[in-house]
User: What shape does this take?
Amino acid sequence: MTLKEFWHRLGSPKWFYQMSGPWQRAFAILAVLLIVVGMAWGLAFAPPDYQQGNSFRIIYVHVPAAILAQSVYVALGAAGVLLLVWRMKMAQLVLENLVGFGAWMTALALFSGAVWGKPTWGTWWVFDGRTTSTLVLLFLYFGLYALRRAIPAREAAGRACALLAVVGVINIPVIKYSVEWWTTLHQGATFKLTEAPAMPASMWAPLLVNVLGAYCLFAANLIAKLRTAILRQEQGTAWVREWAGREARP
Amino acid sequence: MTGLACTRGGRRLFGGFDLTLGAGGCAEVHGANGSGKSTLLRIAAGLFSDYSGEVEAAPCHYLGHRNGVSALLSPLENLRPYERLGTGSAWEALARVGLQDEWENPSGQLSQGQQRRVGLARLLLGDKPLWLLDEPLTALDTDGRRLVRELVESHCGGGGVVLCATHQTLGCSATEVHLEP
Amino acid sequence: MFAVQFRRDWLSLRRAKDEAINPLVFLFLAATLFAIAFGGEPRRLAGLAPAIIWVLVLLANLLSLEALFRRDFEDGTLEQLLLLAEPPFAAVLGKVAVQWCMSGVAMTVLAPVVALLLNLPLAVLPALMLGLLLGTPALSLIGAVGAALTVGLRGGGVLLALLLLPLYLPVLVFGVSATLDTMAGVGAAAQFYWLAAISAMALTLAPFATTAALRISVEQS
Assistant: This one.
């Protein structure tokens, strides 16, 4: 299969549906395994932090969520480019089905950060560089969601969101930099994760497992949603009818 | 255009549509409300891109449901930018559509039919071979309808091409096309 | 094409002055409200004035952006612009330039009055005005992308704010911190460079994004 063929196939919902079943299962199983192992390891077996005690263990939720929050937005931007430049049908589906997951991850990152902040910093919320740019990220997700809901025509909504996602991805570095500038300049005394002592392997290894688990969850979730969306979108076509007939028969 | 198909909002508008117009050709597109006449013209104009099939269109003037006439500017000011396309003068175009006495009032104060005429005057500027007219007769009086017919006839006579979506008939010799799903 | 569109929009602007002036009145009025609300403590107000002015400028800019493409969209001039302007982004830039004259430039000119209301020290005024002059092009240019995406939509105004305000954050941060640093007697050259850089980046990228967004919006009508 040449690269060009592969490219065309990637854009075809039918092909994606037919090949993605095993992948979805694989990612789902991996996600469950990794998250269960990572959580058990992190929550029960990793040593407590010498400063923060057991409260640091929320890192095993917080960091995967924060990483996913950003990765999902970058993925949206990439899908946006695919949709705007090559009109790839699959990219539209990705854009439609990924916003919710990303927004929830961002919310989870903010929430777990607040819960962690209370015992560590003594306050629920601090306007430091990371928290602020994560909050802005949440607003960017809201914007994408609101724009899609406001445009009645599905195709146009997809392309409008694609454009907005691309503009957002270009802007994120500038936003992050400006926020960091602001906080380092005007809040010299903020606490920073980077200033904490480097973690020993017994602490970061479970974190790594959890992050990988979160990525697998992301992949499994995305594939499952895409498969459902493909069936809905292509419900009139011959291959879906054929598929439905086959599934119905015992 | 060959094998043109378009689906909008999950509803199939038309499929397998073929049309070729040579120099001097004029086609009237007929079809029920919502059959996709306007969409067909917008596709030809390059204002709608969600279709399958091949479209090859010469540089065109498009006169849509909306006249493209800014209410705050006078008819003359509305037409001025199109003089830059090369041929024709805005004055003469206005005189041709019978608006020489209204050139300086803001277009918003003109009647619907007069605003339509400003839109028609735009066709005379810039020498574009293809005219895409979407219900050109709307809001026009008997005189105005005759004007449209004359404009179309002289354009086709000069080797131009006209594709027109309409419920009424223009009254000049034209191929009739029907849009069906 | 830029000049043609600029002249056209400038004429329209002059014939619908009230619409263009309303956002400026809003800026003025909201600043007055702040001044009255803080009535008892003018000294505290001075420290907050840069932040208040910049946030109000952001909001007033949103108000004037909402109308940027609406009229052209409704009367069909926008589709003609996309069909005939060669290249379309030059015409778009012309429209944005007129909007900037009526928002960014006008607000910079008005800034001394607003600053007076909010008790901002006179010595800081040049920094505030320079910041506004350098930062507002970015607001207009980025804002045009949002305005193009939401033109013709129900509830476009609130949606526009939701889309644009997060993207306005860098301009707000550098604008306010430039004024504050000048107030504290520290040089603020870096912030001015940043504002100029953001505007320059917006100038190179935003017109293309705006044109693409306009095409998407016109396709739905």
